[in-house]
Fold FAD-binding oxidoreductase.
Amino acid sequence: MSNPLISSGYKPIVLVNMTQPKRRSHWAWGWEHKMPSIEERHRLAELLEGVLGIKAGEVEEAVPIQAVELPGTELKATWLDTTNDARIRHTYGRSWPDLMRGFLGDFGPAPLAVATPSSTEELEKVYDWAQDSGVKVQIYGGGTSVVGGVECDPEYPTISLDTSNLSGVLEIDKTSRGALIAAGAFGPDIEDALRPHGLTLRHFPQSFEFSTLGGWIATRSGGHFATQRTHIEDFVQWMEVVAPCGAVRTGEYPASGAGPDMNRVFAGSEGTMGLITKAWMRLQERPRYKAQASVKFAAWNDAIAALRAIAQSGLNPANARLLDSREALMNQVSFDGSNILVLGFESADRPLAAQMERALEIARDHHGQCDGAVYIDTNGPGAKESERWKSAFLDGPYMQSALLTMGVFADTFETAVTWSGFERLHNAVIANMKDVLKRTCGRGFLTCRITHIYPDGLAPYYTWVAPMPTRDRSAIEVWKTIKDEAMKTLRTNGGTITHHHAVGRIHRDAWHQEAGPHSIAALDAMKSSFDPKHILNPGVLL
Ligand SMILES: Cc1cc2nc3c(=O)[nH]c(=O)nc-3n(C[C@H](O)[C@H](O)[C@H](O)COP(=O)(O)OP(=O)(O)OC[C@H]3O[C@@H](n4cnc5c(N)ncnc54)[C@H](O)[C@@H]3O)c2cc1C
């Protein structure tokens, strides 16, 4: 999920009012105090109309949490939190339908209660109690799922199991460059604990601030960096999973050829097999040298050819983000119809002029124009400047919630496809999305950025913005029509249903088609072994 309107390069509209206490919004993205003010939203509306030609409506505010009504709960236990506040805050992730239902004050699927175990023993007691009392358990990490991964199944009495008390960096091995990290640790807490040791996990999904290590592994999250180890499972050496059948620990080796890799069974299992309680993560030294450049391309096909040549060159840039001309316009980084390639290299060990110069040479061979690169030694001046992208990148999602309050859809979908299959897929996405946005909303705006590159293919990331025909529950039906069209287009044109947004409930049927019946049956059998009474995450993934 990404910034629907604004990202690096654009002066952020969001003002940070630190006089208010820090508290997460019960319905929108992130902190309450970082939601753009009414004046900022008016400025955003002007920008939207001026740049995209989409007219926003009047600002409406969400139903306040105190006014939300929930179905009753009979559950009682000292270790269960049955307050409305806890139940509301554990009802949804942050997909567009989640935001909309939260905005309207509809928290019908709320869990009956919330448990927050702080040890394996407490977790096992929750499992025993749930198995004995016929209650299902829905695992909740940071609650940033965009695929319905934390929502309770209305068919069953269900509690939410929050991992936030299973937190912290537990052990660091500087010699082998690894750390044991508890699953409920949030991104900033992990980096804060590693920084004094000169180390980093270097995994920065856009949801970094509000998502957890366990959630990342359970969903195979993708980080900000464009090449090599793009997904979190590439950093896992071993993990502990506590399942209803008992605890499982995968092999504690830097590499092993013994049988199927159980890390890869649990990574992406989305809480259906057991709860990932901790993982031994591979770390890196904090990068000292950085090189950054931006290249303009008049023609999209030239930009794609340059990107492929860079992906297949072995240069492995940390960043190789290509914005199409509409994305560049929306982000206010280019107004002349150019496509923009943002290139970056990072190293803890050596200056990067040779790699950057070669990448720019490749770009120029494909008609790219660049005024030169910036080289930064983070031990010297300019270190702060090199980190500026991070706050703009992480604050982007506030705009999606702000646009919703003005009756404007903004959402994203992403995929991965081979280089040879890209043109067909991309053309189909443009044609089908244009058609469905016109049919459902009268008009719309679609942009593309390429977020990750591999020698054999690329990960395109699409953002669509459109006026909502109505501002009530029926907008969710409109969203579903658009989402279905996007999923069908990806599936029938060689793209995977997701490069890093996971499966959850929203992508489940499409993923079952992608995986095929034999694989799904095998995973079902594995689930029955780890979770014999099927108490965990019903309706998610399987
Ligand atoms: C604005 C925004 C930006 C995003 N950017 C990115 C991005 O850049 N890259 C990316 O990959 N994703 C992104 N996402 C999606 C989401 O942040 C990821 O899927 C993330 O990995 C979820 O982590 P979480 O801790 O919030 O997990 P949750 O949302 O709480 O849970 C996700 C799933 O994992 C299960 N789960 C959680 N913890 C555990 C555990 N310890 N053991 C077993 N199962 C568990 C849950 O039951 C659920 O099914 C974004 C989402 C939003 C809203």
Observations:
- Residues 419-441 form the longest helix (23 residues).
- The mean pLDDT is 94.
- The pocket of flavin-adenine dinucleotide is lined by residues 1, 29, 93-94, 139-146, 149-150, 163, 183, 205-207, 211-212, 214-216, 218-219, 221-222, 270-271, 275-276, 397, 500-502, 504, 537, 540 (CB under 6 Å).
- The first strand starts at residue 80 and ends at 81.
